[in-house]
Amino acid sequence: STKAAPGMIVRTRSDKAVKARQGVMEFLLINHPLDCPICDQAGECVLQEFSYHYGTGGSRFEGLKVHHEKNVVLGPHIVFDGERCIKCTRCIRFCDEVTHTHELGLFSRGDHTIIGAFPGRQLDNAYSGCTADICPVAALTLKEFRFKQRVWFLRNTASICAGCARGCNVNLGINEDRIWRITPRDNEAVNQSWICDEGRLSFQAYQQTERLGRALGGAAAGEATREILVKSGYEQVAGMLGEIARKHGGATVAGITSGHATVEEQAALKELIERAGGSRIALPVHERGDDDALLIRKDKTANSVGARLAGGANCTMEELLTAIKIGKVRALVVLREDFLGEFGAEAMAARGALDLLMTLDWRVTATVKASDVALPLSAYGEMDGSFINFQGRMQLLRPGLTPYEESDPGWKPLLEIASRLGGPAVPKNFREAFRWAVSRVPVLAHLDTPALGKLGVSLESPASERG
């Protein structure tokens, strides 16, 4: 608490300093339960580390410890264990200074002081999970991770959140080929050291949704289509697109791209549509709520900027549906979107006017079920990729999971089909796919994956391209 001043000399290893630290540690542990073997924080506990490095290894305290309530539900996502709390007030300061929601305070006095929510209130702000991150002990724990895994079993993969256009930097906590938690990773230019609760728990949707693991024909496809797909794969799909282009004109081949898709996937879809002779590519808008003053964006896709910049998105869904109904579009390639589920009866009516509906997705959707051809894609956490956030910052998505069954990143099947229509050779790996994709966009052409690193790079793109 002593402020630094000119000429000040600070000794950190003198006998006096060492004994002072040991004394502080002894007092901190007087009422603290010594339950490290069963504590969720064991392995990443600041108090545990400080006790090891700066404590005496013993205690002279012989009285009864002060007990507080355990398993206190403070809000939808946070549980409080009063006995472990060391009254550092980080959680209170977070709610006061970062979210400005002021739910928490200190109550009682002396060694009976306790953290709690004010009467009639809950810890239910949009960033409540961050209080568990900054708690140096396990006084605050996240309900959804509590007692699920030992942290030393987890392998952290540095990636980015795909929940909205912010693109928060995160670590994926992975064990046994499963994401157990998502925690924020420091990046001052994007999310500082925070993440919202929705993004923190976004991995659950990937574990609870029915996956598409193999190429198949949907309910609208006949047995012949299924046989073609199984036996001949990309060659026959390219032939089907080519036949429609020859019969009705290349302009009748169109696509639906997605802000959920990577830059490489979006560029590959554009390549396929152009190779077939088309140019029309629609980008569905996924907006919910409002932007807030901290991190949350109403655009719930991570890469809508990339869809416009590299993916060639040039029309709205309403314009595309109209073009289908009047016969200007006869073949439609859908990338990571459920347009039948999103647009309901209007989209189903348009589906009847299509000669070919091909969908590429990681999940089984209404659109997949109604497709003539459906190809399985890797989901979040299973693939490399790049996103461009609303600020125009390009960042890398990294994998930590094994791809599900026969799924691939979307650029691979799209470019496999495009290559059979006279397109470029299919990249052998993600870095080649990245280089190919950015080479098509002048503002990205100078980039390579090492340059993006773990924090990404800001692009010198027009504000209109940054959303």
How many alpha or pi helices? 16
Spatially, the strands of the biggest sheet line up as: 10-9-11-12-13
Shape: elongated
Helix-strand category: alpha/beta
Strand content: 5-15%
Low-pLDDT stretches are 461-467
* Percent helix: 25-40%
Determine the mean pLDDT. 91
Please state the CA-atom Rg, rounded to the nearest Å: 27 Å
Largest sheet: 5 strands, parallel
Count of distinct strands:
16
What is the CA-CA span between the terminal residues? 44 Å
Throw out a few tags for this protein:
alpha/beta; 16 strands; single chain; 3-stranded antiparallel β-sheet; 467 residues; 5-stranded parallel β-sheet; 30% helix
What is the element layout, followed by pairings?
Elements: H1 15-30, H2 46-54, E1 72-73, E2 78-80, H3 90-98, E3 104-107, E4 114-117, H4 130-134, E5 140-142, E6 155-160, E7 169-175, E8 178-184, H5 197-200, H6 203-208, H7 223-232, H8 234-248, E9 253-256, H9 263-275, E10 281-282, H10 304-309, H11 317-325, E11 331-335, H12 339-351, E12 356-361, H13 366-369, E13 373-376, E14 385-388, E15 393-397, H14 411-419, H15 430-439, H16 449-452, E16 457-458
Helix pairs in contact: 1-2, 8-14, 9-14, 9-15, 11-12
Task: Walk me through the structure.
This protein has 467 residues and is α/β, with parallel strands linked by helices. Helices cover 30% and strands 15% of the residues. It has helices spanning 15-30, 46-54, 90-98, 130-134, 197-200, 203-208, 223-232, 234-248, 263-275, 304-309, 317-325, 339-351, 366-369, 411-419, 430-439, 449-452, and strands at residues 72-73, 78-80, 104-107, 114-117, 140-142, 155-160, 169-175, 178-184, 253-256, 281-282, 331-335, 356-361, 373-376, 385-388, 393-397, 457-458. A five-stranded parallel sheet has the order 10-9-11-12-13, with helices on both faces. α1 crosses α2 (46-54), α9 (263-275) packs parallel to α14 (411-419) and α9 (263-275) packs across α15 (430-439). It is elongated and about 90 Å long.
